[in-house]
Give the backbone structure.
Amino acid sequence: MFENLSDRLDAVFKKLKGHGTLNEKNIEDGLKQVRMALLEADVNYKVAKTVISDIKARALGQEVMQSLTPGQQVIKIVYDEFTRMMGSEHQDLDFGGGAMGGVMLVGLQGSGKTTTAGKLGLYLRKQGRKPFLVPVDVYRPAAIDQLKKIGTQLDLPVFDTSPDMKPLKICQDAQLAAREQGCDTLLYDTAGRLHMDDTLMAELETLKKGVNPSEILLVADAMTGQDAVNIAGSFDKRLDLTGFVLTKMDGDARGGAALSIKAVTGKPLKFIGVGEKSTALEAFHPDRMASKILGMGDTISFIERAQEAVDEKEAKSLEKKLRQNAFTLEDFKNQMKSVRKMGSVKDLLGMLPGMNKKQLKGLDINDKEFGKIEAIINSMTMEEREKYAIIKASRKKRIALGSGTSVQDVNKLLKSYTQSMKMIKKFNKGGMRSLKGMLPF
Amino acid sequence: MAFSIFKKKDQENKPSETGIFSRLKTGLSKTRDVLNTDINALFKSNRKIDDSLFEELEELLITSDMGMDITMDMMDRIRKRSGRLSTADQVKSVLKEELIALFPQKPESAAPPVLTRPHVIMVVGVNGTGKTTTLGKLATQFTRQGKKVLIAAADTFRAAAIEQVEIWADRAGASIVKHKQGADPAAVAYDAVEAAMARGIDILLIDTAGRLHTQKNLMEELKKIKRTVAKKMPQAPHEVLMVLDATTGQNAISQAKMFHEAVGVTQLAVTKLDGTAKGGIVAAVSSTMDLPIRCIGVGEGLDDLQAFEADRFINALFD
C-alpha cells in the first residue's frame, strides 16, 4: 500500500534535494508535483488544495532549521502535515467502561463490513473481550449465512438471525442473547447501503437510537475515489460516526481516502484491513503511515510484529547457535516459521526504511514455497537435520517422496540452506561490518 | 459488440426506449445533480471563456475521477478547440464531444458471430465490486429471453458465497453446479462446462471469488480456471467480464490492467453508478484499456442493470 504515492513523492523530493536553497520558484514547482501525486492517489481535490497551500505557507514561513537541507526541510513539513491530517496517535475503540459494549459497522455495499466484523471479533477477543456477532443484513442474499460461517470458523458466537426479522428487532433480541451467553461486546453487521439512499439511511438512524452503540464505524474501501469524502461525510452527518475502517489496504491503492476522510470529517481512522486472513486487521497509526508514505519505512510496526511472533528464549538460543555456526536445518525451519507468523515476507520487507521502493516490485515470495520447505524438512530424520552433508541421492529421493516434492526441490532447499550457512560464517568472522550493505540500517 | 448475438431477442423483450432512458436518468440523478448543476453553472451562456472557466472545468473533471492524465489531455484539446469559440455555452458542446470520444467506438456490427453453445462467460473482479449480483441479474435477463442458463459457483473461498449465488440461480430460474466451500474453483468450472455441454445449455456464467489484482497466487488461480475451461471446451470462455465498482478511484485502471494481463478481459460491467457523483473512472478505464462496457448498474432493481451506450450515458448526464 502507498508504494505508488511514495514513489511519486520520492521523485519530487529528489529534485528538491538538488537545490541549495529554497525559493518561491522551486517550492512552487515541487508543490505542483506533490499536488499531482496527491490527486493521482485519489486524495480529495479540495483536501489536496488545502494541504498544498498549508505546506507552502509553512515552507516559505519562519520554520527554517539550520540542521536540515532545504529538501529535507520540505519533507519534514510534508510529513508533519500528513500526520496532522490523519491525526497523530492511534485511537482504539472506546467502550466507555460500560458492562455492555456495541460496535455498529456501516458502509456501502461491498466495502467489507462482514469480513471486518469477523476480523474485529478476533481482535477484540485477543484484547480479552467477549464479542458477539450480530448479522443485521437481511437484504443481501446469504449475508446472514456468511457471518454465521465466519463465526464458526473463528469460534465466535453469532446471533441466530433469520432473514424475515426486522433489523431493529434483531439488534434488540441480540442484546438479550449476548447477555445470556456471557458476552460483553456486540458487533452489528448492517446491510450495505448507498449514502444517498434516504430510506436506508433513516433505518440506520432508527437502529442507532434503539441500540445505542458505543462505536459506529464506517467501513470504506481503500480504493475509493474522489467520492470518499462525500460518502464519509454523509454517513457522519446522519449517524455521528466514531471512526473509520479502511479495507483492502493490501492492494496497490495509493490510499488517498485515508488522507482525505480524516481531514474532512475530523473522525479518526481506527483500523485497516490488510489481507484475506482473519488476522489481517491492524490498528491504524497515523504517524507510522505518514513515514511510510514518505518512504521512511515503518520500523516500529516491524519490531512490534517481530516481538509478537518470536519468543524471547527462542531468539536467545538461536543467537547462540548462530554464533557457534551450529545452525541446523531444524533451526532453519523454526526460523522460517517465526517469519511466517509475522506475515508475508513482502509485507515485512516493505516496513523497513529504504526497502519499500522499486526493488520490492516483482519480488514475490510465494508463501506456498514455505509450506514446501517445511514439508521437506519434516520428512528428514533428526540426524539429517543436524548433519545435512549426509543427505545424498537416495536420501534425497526418499525425502522428496515423503514430502510430496521433487529431488530438485530438495536440492534447492539444501542450496539456500548452505548459502545462509556461508553468510552466517562470514558474519561471525567479520562481525557487524560484513553485514553492512546487506541490511538497510 | 461481442454480445450482439443476443441483440435480436434483446430488442424484442426490451421495455420502451423512454422507460429505459428515464430509469437511466433517475439512476444517474446524483451524478447529474453534481455534474450537471456544475456544468450548467459553469457554462452560463453569457460567461466569458477565460482561465477561471478552464480551471473550474479542470476541477470538475478531476473530482469526477477522470484521472490526471486524461484530464490534462482533455483540457489541452478543449483549450485548443475553444480558441475559435465565443461563448461558454459552445465550450459545453465541445466538452460533450470530447467525453463521448473517450469511449471506444462500437465496431460496425458485421455478420453476426456464430452462436456457440454453451456461450461461456467468466465473471471476475476485486472483492466487493458486485460480481455475484451482476451475474445474478444477467442470469435473470437471459432466462427471461428464453435462454437456458447454468451458473458455476466457482467462488469457493468466501464464506456463504455459494449460498448467495444459489439464491440468485433460484430467482433467475437457472440451474447451478457447485462443490463444497474450499473446493478447487477450476474443478467447479470444469464440471460446469461439462454439464453445460451435456444439457444443451445456452449460457454458462462462471462466478469467481473476488481477489485483489496484486495477489499473485490468486491471479494464478484465476488463470488456471480459464485454462481448465478451455481444456474442456476450446475457445471458452467466450467472454471474460470484469466487474468494476464505480466509486473506485484511479486504482480501477491498475485493476483492469492486471486482470486483463492475467485472463484477457473482453468486457466491463460497472456497478454502483447510482451511488456516485463521479463515474469519470468509467471513461478513464474504457479509454485507457480500449475495452467496451457491456452493462452498468444504476440501482438495486433487476432492470437497473442496463446495456451501456456511451452517447446515451453522456446525454443523460448533460440533459
Summary: Chain B is about 50% helix and 15% strand.
